[in-house]
Amino acid sequence: MALRRSGVKLWFDLKTKVPLTGTICQLGRQTVDVSRGQVKIIAKQFGLSLPIIDSVQNDDKSQPASAMNDVMLFKSLGFDSVSSVDLVEADDPTHVFDLNEPAPEALREKFDCVFDGGTAEHVFNVPQLLRNMHFMLKPGGIIVHASPSSNHVDHGFHMFSPTFFYDYYTVNKYEVLQSYLFEYDPHKKFRPWNVYNYSPGSIDDLSIGGWDGVDALGIWFVARKKENSSSNVVPVQSFYLRQWSQDNAAGAPVAEAPAATPGLLRKTIMGLAKKILKNDSATYNHVRDFYLYVKEMVLKAPFRRRPHRPPVIARY
Fold first, then answer.
1. What's residue 296's pLDDT?
2. Nearest-angstrom CA–CA distance, 201 and 275
3. Is 258's pLDDT higher than 50?
4. CA 28: distance to chain centroid?
């Protein structure tokens, strides 16, 4: 898991809106792909100063003095203590346990922030991971997800839709603070990300085949735990709640559409084709397929409403 320049900018964007203090726990330690000097530049772009950035030290002696690691970055952002959880000890995490299983009792409400920076997709039992994040978070603390969406095939067990996080945290009475989709090229780390604001229903007309030309999509989601927040309420996808609400508002069941009838042009063309090619079914089938192609691509396509992406709110 790596925090590139654009991901670091999302953290600074969050810092301008939400105080970042106390303790943070990462689900898997982050590799920080920016230098100390670059972090200073990013902070300045957001109108922020980092008074302790020059005093925090990199405990990895194999790296140059200018390098940043996860502990340095999160302390520079304002956290006093930086912890981590992982399945194995290879990356020297603070706590070792399997996120597919319940978190240890010692971690109950221990952290002010729990950060999933690309771990949830690698954990098979995602509901348990979400329960663990809730369990480890103090009331008033924030959960941050940076997770893959479209075009991450076999990167992990899962790719997520933004409605997954939004619906889950809403029904469990969290306060949603930020909900973004970001578009990026995973092979070009210096190309800025296009960041879109997301709310349920905002991309309904893009949900199937609407994001053509996109290299990859990711999700940035931040929610605050309230005193009455929970983790065990299973959501119904908000798309269907909206559909049912619209049906109920109409006051009557939706009438079935009448069966389609062939248009005059089709009846004329296909009738002639049958007469001419009545003994040549193969050629007739070719004529029929060609007609359907022309109808779809030439006659209908110019008038079809193309879905619009939501406006870009930032380029990080």
1. 64
2. 50
3. no
4. 18
Q: Which CATH architecture has domain 2-241?
A: 3-Layer(aba) Sandwich (3.40)
Maximal CA-CA distance, the chain: 88
From the centroid of its chain, how far is CA 20? 22
Provide CATH 3.40.50.150 ranges for the chain: 2-241
Residue 177: closest CA among 138, 225, 139: 225
Secondary structure element (H or E) that encloses residue 115, with its range? strand 111-116
Q: At 280, which amino acid appears?
A: D
Terminal CA-CA length for the chain: 18
pLDDT of residue 269 exceeding 70, the answer is no
Q: Determine contact, residues 50/113, Cβ cutoff 8 Å.
A: no
Give the Cα separation of 136 and 131 in Å (integer): 9
Taking the C-alpha atoms of residue 30 and residue 76, their distance in angstroms, rounded to an integer, is 15
Residue among 180, 225, 215 nearest 11 (CA):
180
Q: Average pLDDT, stretch 102-117? A: 99
In this predicted structure, what is the pLDDT of residue 297?
Answer: 63
Query: Residue 138 corresponds to which tokens in the numbers above?
Result: 């103090």
Scanning 277-314, the segments in alpha helix (DSSP H) are: 281-294
For residue 65, give the nearest of 36, 31, 102 by alpha carbon.
Answer: 36
DSSP at 225: P
Rounded Cα distance between 38 and 40, Å, is 5
Residue 256: which pLDDT band, with cuts at 50, 70 and 90? Answer: very low
Burial class (CB in 10 A: 0-12, 13-18, 19+), 70: buried
Element (H, E) at 219: strand 216-224
CA-nearest of 79, 58, 96 to 15 is 79
Residue 86's Cβ-count burial label (10 Å; 0-12, 13-18, 19+) is buried
d(CA 46, CA 272): 69
